[in-house]
Amino acid sequence: xxxxxxLAEAEVEKLRKRLxxxxxxxxxxxxxxxxxxxxxxxxxxxxxxxD
Length: 51
Fold this sequence. Notes:
With 51 residues, the chain is mostly helical. The termini are far apart.
């Protein structure tokens, strides 16, 4: 039987890995939003110059 400490350590490790995965996903999402924002700004500039 596992001790309470080793169960807690396993849970901490599981949560640490989940946090790392979520932080990577968030960084990707932030980068995608930044690119989209730049794309929108570029389209706005092109639309203004077409007028």
